[in-house]
Design goal:
238 residues, alpha/beta, Rossmann fold, three-stranded antiparallel sheet, 7 helices, globular, binds adenosine-5'-diphosphate, binds magnesium ion
Length: 238
């Protein structure tokens, strides 16, 4: 769903996830044309969070293209339905395009080929890559990675919002920092110990141009039939 920030003179358009608790923690939503990095460990919620944002964008009338190494078209629809995100109609209407990609098979060519494929989707409202980790062959060079993010930024400048998920630790930290700073928004997902139980957390590390401040950490659960539910986390955690 789209809202406009009340006080911004240029009426920044915002893409929301359609989950009000989550949007509140994300400073209202993701400014249109942002390059968004969702970083997290395995099972931390990168795919679920991107699915929630895809749904929110579609609800608002944006077109979305998903390049996925995680799902087929056939597996994505029931996966999203299992967390109450029904996108079948959007798929049938072409508002949502889903391209399963076997990035891992492309070796060091993966980032370059992916950016070429993204360019063909340049007119779309949103492009999602879940997960970019599989495009990171061992032999991928710093230059290839940087140019991938630079080319992506060009698409953002033309008005497309780009969301990229990445497994923490897949990229050496000396390269991760420049990538993080190139992104307009950076969300970090973790699975961490909170007293006796393991909780998922979302840290809004950065959202450039958001209505309110960032830096907040929120706990959440993925509930069957419901989706992302923001939950309190104990103050005891460090
Ligand atoms: N329908 C569902 N019901 C309950 N839990 C779910 C459902 N769909 C996903 N999950 C859970 O959400 C968590 C995050 O999954 P996912 O987003 O795929 O992680 P990542 O992409 O970061 O590896 C996992 O623990 C997964 O089991
Ligand atoms: Mg995933």
């Amino acid at each position: 769903m789209m809202t406009k920030t009340a006080d911004a003179p240029d009426k920044v358009q915002i893409i929301t996830s359609g989950n009000p608790d989550l949007d509140a923690r994300m400073g209202g939503g993701l400014p249109v044309g942002s390059m968004v990095l969702i970083e997290g460990t395995s099972g931390a919620g990168k795919s679920v969070l991107s699915q929630q944002i895809i749904w929110g964008a579609l609800q608002d009338g944006h077109t979305v293209t998903l390049f996925t190494s995680e799902n087929t078209v056939k597996s994505l629809i029931p996966q999203m339905a299992s967390i109450d995100l029904d996108v079948l109609d959007f798929l049938l209407l072409g508002k949502l395009r889903v391209y399963p990609v076997e990035l891992a098979r492309l070796g060091s060519d993966a980032p370059g080929l992916l950016v070429q494929a993204m360019r063909t989707q340049g007119g779309r409202g949103m492009i999602v890559i879940d997960s970019f980790t599989s495009a990171l062959a061992k032999e991928a060079t710093d230059l290839q990675l940087r140019s991938f993010f630079e080319e992506s930024k060009r698409l953002c400048a033309a008005g497309t919002t780009i969301l990229i998920t990445l497994h923490s630790g897949a990229v050496p930290s000396d390269l991760m920092n420049p990538i993080r700073s190139m992104c307009d928004a950076h969300l970090t997902l973790r699975s961490e110990q909170d007293g006796q139980k393991l909780v998922k957390t979302l840290e809004v590390s950065k959202i450039r141009g958001a209505a309110s401040g960032t830096g907040s950490i929120v706990g959440f659960d993925v509930e069957p039939g419901w989706g992302i539910r923001v939950v309190p986390i104990s103050k005891a955690r460090g």
